[in-house]
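Consider a protein example.
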Amino acid sequence: ATPVRLPGEGPQRVLRTIDDARGLRDALKPGVRLVVVGAGWIGAEVATAAAKIGAVVTVVEAADSPLQVALGDEVGGQTAAWYGQSGVDLRLGVSVREIGSAGLLLGDGEWLPADEVVVGVGVRPETGWLAGSGLGLDRGVVVDEHLAAGWDEGGVGPAEPPVVVVGDCAAWWSRRYGRRLRVEHWECAQGSPAVAAATLLGGEAVYDPVPYFWSEQFGRMVQVVGLAGEQDTLVWRGDPTTVAEPAAKRAPGWSAGWFGPDGRLTAIATVNRPMDAVAARRLIAADTVIDPARFEDPSVALKNLAAAA
Protein backbone atom coordinates (compact mmCIF):
# COMPACT_ATOMS: atom_id res chain seq x y z
CA ALA A 1 0.00 0.00 0.00
CA THR A 2 1.06 3.60 -0.58
CA PRO A 3 0.42 6.47 1.87
CA VAL A 4 -1.96 9.18 0.69
CA ARG A 5 -0.27 12.54 0.09
CA LEU A 6 -1.95 15.93 0.02
CA PRO A 7 -1.90 18.57 -2.75
CA GLY A 8 0.77 21.25 -2.73
CA GLU A 9 4.40 21.81 -3.63
CA GLY A 10 5.65 21.97 -0.04
CA PRO A 11 7.55 19.13 1.64
CA GLN A 12 5.48 16.54 3.47
CA ARG A 13 6.51 13.41 5.31
CA VAL A 14 4.68 10.11 5.60
CA LEU A 15 5.43 7.24 7.97
CA ARG A 16 5.52 3.93 6.15
CA THR A 17 9.09 2.61 5.92
CA ILE A 18 12.06 2.41 8.25
CA ASP A 19 13.68 5.19 6.23
CA ASP A 20 10.60 7.35 6.78
CA ALA A 21 10.90 6.73 10.51
CA ARG A 22 14.62 7.53 10.63
CA GLY A 23 14.15 10.71 8.62
CA LEU A 24 11.36 11.88 10.90
CA ARG A 25 13.41 11.06 14.00
CA ASP A 26 16.28 13.20 12.75
CA ALA A 27 13.93 16.09 11.96
CA LEU A 28 12.20 16.21 15.34
CA LYS A 29 14.04 18.58 17.69
CA PRO A 30 12.94 20.70 20.67
CA GLY A 31 11.11 23.77 19.43
CA VAL A 32 10.44 22.45 15.91
CA ARG A 33 6.96 23.46 14.71
CA LEU A 34 5.38 20.18 13.64
CA VAL A 35 1.97 19.91 12.03
CA VAL A 36 0.44 16.45 11.80
CA VAL A 37 -2.45 16.02 9.39
CA GLY A 38 -4.76 13.29 10.65
CA ALA A 39 -5.70 12.27 14.20
CA GLY A 40 -5.78 8.56 13.49
CA TRP A 41 -3.34 5.94 14.75
CA ILE A 42 -0.32 7.33 12.91
CA GLY A 43 -1.11 10.93 13.80
CA ALA A 44 -1.59 10.22 17.50
CA GLU A 45 1.62 8.21 17.78
CA VAL A 46 3.71 10.79 15.91
CA ALA A 47 2.25 13.58 18.05
CA THR A 48 3.03 11.60 21.21
CA ALA A 49 6.68 11.09 20.26
CA ALA A 50 7.16 14.66 19.04
CA ALA A 51 5.66 16.20 22.18
CA LYS A 52 8.00 14.14 24.35
CA ILE A 53 10.97 15.47 22.39
CA GLY A 54 9.82 19.05 22.95
CA ALA A 55 8.47 19.91 19.51
CA VAL A 56 5.61 22.37 19.19
CA VAL A 57 2.89 20.06 17.86
CA THR A 58 -0.38 20.85 16.13
CA VAL A 59 -2.68 18.09 14.87
CA VAL A 60 -5.23 18.93 12.18
CA GLU A 61 -8.17 16.55 11.68
CA ALA A 62 -11.02 16.96 9.21
CA ALA A 63 -13.40 14.78 11.24
CA ASP A 64 -15.17 15.86 14.41
CA SER A 65 -13.20 13.48 16.62
CA PRO A 66 -9.91 11.59 16.65
CA LEU A 67 -10.04 7.97 15.49
CA GLN A 68 -13.50 8.54 14.02
CA VAL A 69 -13.18 5.84 11.36
CA ALA A 70 -11.77 3.24 13.75
CA LEU A 71 -13.85 3.92 16.87
CA GLY A 72 -16.66 6.31 15.96
CA ASP A 73 -17.32 9.76 17.40
CA GLU A 74 -18.48 8.65 20.85
CA VAL A 75 -15.46 6.51 21.72
CA GLY A 76 -12.89 8.28 19.58
CA GLY A 77 -14.00 11.58 21.09
CA GLN A 78 -12.83 10.40 24.51
CA THR A 79 -9.24 10.60 23.27
CA ALA A 80 -9.44 14.30 22.31
CA ALA A 81 -8.58 15.46 25.84
CA TRP A 82 -5.34 13.46 25.75
CA TYR A 83 -3.85 15.85 23.21
CA GLY A 84 -4.22 18.96 25.37
CA GLN A 85 -3.00 17.11 28.45
CA SER A 86 0.22 16.38 26.54
CA GLY A 87 0.66 19.92 25.26
CA VAL A 88 -0.57 19.18 21.73
CA ASP A 89 -2.89 21.59 19.93
CA LEU A 90 -5.70 19.49 18.38
CA ARG A 91 -7.87 21.14 15.73
CA LEU A 92 -10.96 19.16 14.77
CA GLY A 93 -13.23 19.71 11.80
CA VAL A 94 -10.39 21.40 9.90
CA SER A 95 -9.46 20.40 6.36
CA VAL A 96 -6.22 21.10 4.48
CA ARG A 97 -6.35 22.78 1.08
CA GLU A 98 -2.67 22.41 0.23
CA ILE A 99 0.82 22.15 1.71
CA GLY A 100 3.15 25.05 0.98
CA SER A 101 6.86 25.61 1.37
CA ALA A 102 6.60 26.82 4.98
CA GLY A 103 3.27 25.53 6.22
CA LEU A 104 -0.27 24.58 5.32
CA LEU A 105 -3.22 26.39 3.81
CA LEU A 106 -6.30 25.23 5.67
CA GLY A 107 -9.73 24.81 4.18
CA ASP A 108 -11.02 28.04 5.76
CA GLY A 109 -8.15 30.04 4.28
CA GLU A 110 -6.01 30.19 7.42
CA TRP A 111 -2.27 29.81 6.91
CA LEU A 112 -0.66 27.49 9.50
CA PRO A 113 3.14 27.84 9.61
CA ALA A 114 5.21 24.68 10.07
CA ASP A 115 8.82 23.55 9.96
CA GLU A 116 7.79 19.94 9.38
CA VAL A 117 4.55 18.39 8.12
CA VAL A 118 3.59 14.73 8.61
CA VAL A 119 0.58 13.41 6.71
CA GLY A 120 -1.21 10.41 8.23
CA VAL A 121 -4.56 10.17 6.46
CA GLY A 122 -4.48 6.58 5.27
CA VAL A 123 -3.10 4.45 2.47
CA ARG A 124 -4.26 3.06 -0.85
CA PRO A 125 -3.57 -0.55 -1.89
CA GLU A 126 -0.93 -0.87 -4.60
CA THR A 127 -2.89 -2.63 -7.33
CA GLY A 128 -2.20 -0.43 -10.34
CA TRP A 129 0.44 -2.82 -11.66
CA LEU A 130 -2.27 -5.52 -11.85
CA ALA A 131 -4.62 -3.53 -14.08
CA GLY A 132 -5.51 -5.65 -17.09
CA SER A 133 -4.17 -8.83 -15.48
CA GLY A 134 -7.61 -10.40 -15.24
CA LEU A 135 -7.48 -10.63 -11.43
CA GLY A 136 -10.51 -9.27 -9.58
CA LEU A 137 -9.75 -5.81 -8.18
CA ASP A 138 -12.04 -4.00 -5.75
CA ARG A 139 -10.21 -1.69 -3.34
CA GLY A 140 -7.56 -4.40 -3.24
CA VAL A 141 -7.11 -7.79 -4.85
CA VAL A 142 -10.27 -9.88 -4.43
CA VAL A 143 -9.58 -13.22 -2.74
CA ASP A 144 -11.68 -15.88 -1.05
CA GLU A 145 -11.46 -17.17 2.52
CA HIS A 146 -8.43 -19.23 1.51
CA LEU A 147 -6.69 -16.06 0.21
CA ALA A 148 -6.91 -17.45 -3.34
CA ALA A 149 -7.51 -15.02 -6.20
CA GLY A 150 -9.55 -15.59 -9.34
CA TRP A 151 -8.59 -14.70 -12.89
CA ASP A 152 -11.87 -13.09 -13.90
CA GLU A 153 -12.66 -9.50 -12.94
CA GLY A 154 -15.26 -10.62 -10.43
CA GLY A 155 -12.75 -12.64 -8.46
CA VAL A 156 -14.89 -15.76 -8.84
CA GLY A 157 -13.30 -19.14 -9.37
CA PRO A 158 -9.73 -20.20 -8.70
CA ALA A 159 -6.85 -18.99 -10.80
CA GLU A 160 -4.69 -21.54 -12.58
CA PRO A 161 -1.85 -21.54 -11.78
CA PRO A 162 -2.93 -20.54 -8.25
CA VAL A 163 -2.46 -16.96 -7.10
CA VAL A 164 -2.63 -16.03 -3.42
CA VAL A 165 -2.58 -12.58 -1.84
CA VAL A 166 -1.54 -11.42 1.63
CA GLY A 167 -1.05 -8.09 3.37
CA ASP A 168 -2.51 -4.63 2.89
CA CYS A 169 -3.75 -5.23 -0.66
CA ALA A 170 -5.69 -8.43 0.13
CA ALA A 171 -9.48 -7.95 0.08
CA TRP A 172 -10.44 -11.28 1.64
CA TRP A 173 -13.82 -12.86 2.32
CA SER A 174 -14.62 -13.24 6.02
CA ARG A 175 -16.97 -16.06 6.96
CA ARG A 176 -17.26 -14.55 10.43
CA TYR A 177 -18.53 -11.17 9.24
CA GLY A 178 -20.14 -12.25 5.97
CA ARG A 179 -18.38 -9.61 3.91
CA ARG A 180 -15.10 -8.72 2.34
CA LEU A 181 -12.45 -7.15 4.56
CA ARG A 182 -9.18 -5.40 3.89
CA VAL A 183 -7.25 -4.98 7.14
CA GLU A 184 -4.12 -2.82 7.13
CA HIS A 185 -2.75 -3.83 10.53
CA TRP A 186 0.51 -5.68 11.03
CA GLU A 187 -1.22 -8.78 12.38
CA CYS A 188 -2.86 -9.42 9.01
CA ALA A 189 0.53 -9.46 7.31
CA GLN A 190 1.86 -11.70 10.07
CA GLY A 191 -0.96 -14.22 10.19
CA SER A 192 -2.12 -14.58 6.60
CA PRO A 193 1.01 -16.06 4.94
CA ALA A 194 0.55 -19.43 6.66
CA VAL A 195 -2.94 -19.76 5.17
CA ALA A 196 -1.68 -18.61 1.76
CA ALA A 197 1.11 -21.21 1.84
CA ALA A 198 -1.36 -23.96 2.76
CA THR A 199 -3.60 -22.90 -0.14
CA LEU A 200 -0.69 -23.10 -2.58
CA LEU A 201 -0.02 -26.63 -1.32
CA GLY A 202 -3.62 -27.70 -1.96
CA GLY A 203 -4.90 -27.35 1.59
CA GLU A 204 -8.21 -25.96 2.82
CA ALA A 205 -7.00 -23.57 5.52
CA VAL A 206 -9.32 -20.61 6.16
CA TYR A 207 -8.22 -17.10 7.05
CA ASP A 208 -10.88 -15.60 9.31
CA PRO A 209 -9.31 -13.96 12.37
CA VAL A 210 -10.87 -11.61 14.87
CA PRO A 211 -9.24 -8.28 13.91
CA TYR A 212 -6.84 -6.94 16.52
CA PHE A 213 -4.78 -3.77 16.78
CA TRP A 214 -2.93 -1.84 19.45
CA SER A 215 -1.41 1.62 19.78
CA GLU A 216 0.54 3.50 22.44
CA GLN A 217 -0.38 7.18 22.60
CA PHE A 218 -0.13 9.91 25.22
CA GLY A 219 0.85 7.47 27.98
CA ARG A 220 -1.95 5.05 27.24
CA MET A 221 -2.17 1.61 25.69
CA VAL A 222 -5.13 1.40 23.31
CA GLN A 223 -6.23 -2.01 22.02
CA VAL A 224 -9.06 -2.74 19.61
CA VAL A 225 -10.52 -6.20 19.06
CA GLY A 226 -13.28 -7.28 16.69
CA LEU A 227 -15.45 -5.36 14.28
CA ALA A 228 -18.57 -3.48 15.34
CA GLY A 229 -21.73 -3.45 13.23
CA GLU A 230 -23.99 -0.49 12.47
CA GLN A 231 -26.80 -1.89 14.64
CA ASP A 232 -24.60 -2.72 17.62
CA THR A 233 -25.12 -1.14 21.05
CA LEU A 234 -22.24 0.62 22.81
CA VAL A 235 -21.68 -0.26 26.48
CA TRP A 236 -19.08 1.48 28.67
CA ARG A 237 -16.88 -0.39 31.14
CA GLY A 238 -15.29 2.11 33.51
CA ASP A 239 -15.26 5.90 33.32
CA PRO A 240 -13.48 7.27 30.23
CA THR A 241 -13.48 10.82 31.64
CA THR A 242 -11.31 10.00 34.66
CA VAL A 243 -8.02 11.91 34.60
CA ALA A 244 -4.86 10.46 36.12
CA GLU A 245 -3.50 11.96 39.31
CA PRO A 246 -0.31 14.00 38.82
CA ALA A 247 1.79 11.37 40.61
CA ALA A 248 0.29 8.43 38.71
CA LYS A 249 2.47 6.68 36.18
CA ARG A 250 -0.49 5.62 34.05
CA ALA A 251 -3.98 6.96 33.48
CA PRO A 252 -6.95 4.93 34.81
CA GLY A 253 -8.21 2.29 32.41
CA TRP A 254 -11.57 1.83 30.75
CA SER A 255 -13.14 -0.13 27.94
CA ALA A 256 -16.00 0.26 25.50
CA GLY A 257 -17.79 -2.77 24.11
CA TRP A 258 -20.17 -3.17 21.18
CA PHE A 259 -22.98 -5.74 21.46
CA GLY A 260 -24.98 -7.16 18.59
CA PRO A 261 -28.77 -7.54 18.65
CA ASP A 262 -28.29 -11.17 19.70
CA GLY A 263 -26.30 -10.18 22.81
CA ARG A 264 -22.92 -11.22 21.49
CA LEU A 265 -19.90 -9.04 22.04
CA THR A 266 -18.73 -8.00 18.57
CA ALA A 267 -15.94 -5.55 19.35
CA ILE A 268 -14.11 -3.83 22.18
CA ALA A 269 -11.79 -0.88 22.59
CA THR A 270 -9.67 -0.92 25.74
CA VAL A 271 -7.50 1.77 27.31
CA ASN A 272 -4.93 0.56 29.82
CA ARG A 273 -6.92 -2.64 30.38
CA PRO A 274 -4.93 -5.29 28.49
CA MET A 275 -6.65 -8.23 30.19
CA ASP A 276 -9.99 -6.98 28.86
CA ALA A 277 -8.56 -7.17 25.34
CA VAL A 278 -7.20 -10.70 25.84
CA ALA A 279 -10.49 -12.01 27.28
CA ALA A 280 -12.64 -10.18 24.73
CA ARG A 281 -10.68 -11.69 21.86
CA ARG A 282 -11.58 -15.17 23.08
CA LEU A 283 -15.21 -14.25 23.74
CA ILE A 284 -15.64 -12.76 20.28
CA ALA A 285 -13.92 -15.69 18.58
CA ALA A 286 -16.30 -18.07 20.37
CA ASP A 287 -19.42 -15.98 19.57
CA THR A 288 -20.20 -15.92 23.27
CA VAL A 289 -23.39 -14.29 24.59
CA ILE A 290 -22.66 -12.30 27.75
CA ASP A 291 -24.66 -10.00 30.00
CA PRO A 292 -24.02 -6.33 29.10
CA ALA A 293 -24.93 -5.30 32.65
CA ARG A 294 -22.12 -7.42 34.07
CA PHE A 295 -19.80 -6.19 31.34
CA GLU A 296 -20.29 -2.65 32.67
CA ASP A 297 -18.72 -3.57 36.02
CA PRO A 298 -14.93 -3.20 35.64
CA SER A 299 -14.38 -5.15 38.86
CA VAL A 300 -15.71 -8.31 37.16
CA ALA A 301 -13.06 -10.01 35.03
CA LEU A 302 -14.23 -10.43 31.46
CA LYS A 303 -12.89 -13.97 31.35
CA ASN A 304 -15.49 -14.92 33.97
CA LEU A 305 -18.45 -13.59 32.01
CA ALA A 306 -18.54 -16.52 29.61
CA ALA A 307 -18.98 -18.99 32.46
CA ALA A 308 -21.78 -16.88 33.93
CA ALA A 309 -23.62 -16.46 30.63
Q: What stands out?
A: DSSP finds eight helices and 17 strands in the chain.
